[in-house]
Amino acid sequence: MKICMIGSGYVGLVSGVCFADLGNNVICVDKETNKIDNLKNGIIPIYEPGLEELVKKNFKNGNLNFSTNLKDSVSKSDIIFICVGTPTKKNTNAADLSQIFAVTREIKKSIKKYKIIVTKSTVPVATGDEIEKILSTSKLKKLFSVVSNPEFLREGEAIRDFIYPDRIVIGTSEIRANKIMKNLYSPLISKGANYLNTNRRAAELIKYASNAFLASKITFINEISNLCENIGVNIEDVSIGMGLDKRIGSRFLRAGPAYGGSCFPKDTRAITDTGIKFKTDLSLIKSVIKSNDNRTNLLLKRVQHILKNKIKDKIICFLGVTFKANTDDMRESSCLKMIPFLSKKGANINYFDPSGKKKILQKIKNVNYLSSIKEACLNADLVIIHTEWNEFKSINFKNLVKKKNFSIYDMRNIYSYKKMKRDNIKYFCIGR
Ligand SMILES: NC(=O)c1ccc[n+]([C@@H]2O[C@H](COP(=O)([O-])OP(=O)(O)OC[C@H]3O[C@@H](n4cnc5c(N)ncnc54)[C@H](O)[C@@H]3O)[C@@H](O)[C@H]2O)c1
Question: What is the whole-number distance in angstroms between the Cα of residue 5 and the centre of ligand 1?
Answer without folding.
Answer: 10
